[in-house]
Amino acid sequence: MKKTLALLGMVALLASCGGGKSNGEGENAGPVQTEPTTTETTTTPSNDPSSNPDYQKGMELIAKSDCLTCHKVDEKLIGPAYSEVAAKYAGTPDTMVNHLAHKIIAGGQGNWGEVPMTAHPTVSEADAEAMVKYILLLKK
């Protein structure tokens, strides 16, 4: 009985996390994209990732979404810490970035435990990919 109540409580909590709207704000990457860069990839991934344009755009999109309700950078809440996700998928090809972006849009369950991740169908594929690229840059 206690397990059933705990499960129902978690479902109710997750349902309350999924109501965020994406109204398209933040898609303009104006100042982030205009900075001239001679190297698109970082030569030393452990250096400061905040200079990477993917970092800035992804961080802004996540800040405007409901992601931080269930995730933190270095601390597990309801979902895994972003640094754990980055460590698990470090050095992933573009196909995995696309796969993870679809997990943001469609939701999922089973990769990080039994608590399902809320679907975010209003997030565009490009924004979801930017969020994934930001998260992957958080590898320690």
Describe this structure in words.
- With 140 residues, this protein is mainly alpha-helical.
- The chain has a domain at 68-140: Cytochrome Bc1 Complex, Chain D, domain 2, CATH 1.10.760.
- The chain is 46% helix and 0% strand.
- It is globular, with a radius of gyration of 16 Å.
Task: Please tag this protein with its features.
140 residues, mainly alpha, Cytochrome Bc1 Complex, Chain D, domain 2, globular
CA-based shape: globular
Kindly identify the CATH topology of the domain at 68-140: Cytochrome Bc1 Complex, Chain D, domain 2
Number of helices: 6
What is the rounded Rg? 16 Å
Let me know the largest β-sheet: none
Uncertain spans: 5-9, 11-16, 19-39, 41-46
Helix/strand class: mainly alpha
Overall average pLDDT:
75
What is the highest CATH level, the class of the domain at 68-140?
Answer: Mainly Alpha
Write the layout of secondary structure elements.
Elements: H1 2-17, H2 30-34, H3 53-64, H4 82-88, H5 94-106, H6 125-136
Helix pairs in contact: 3-6, 5-6
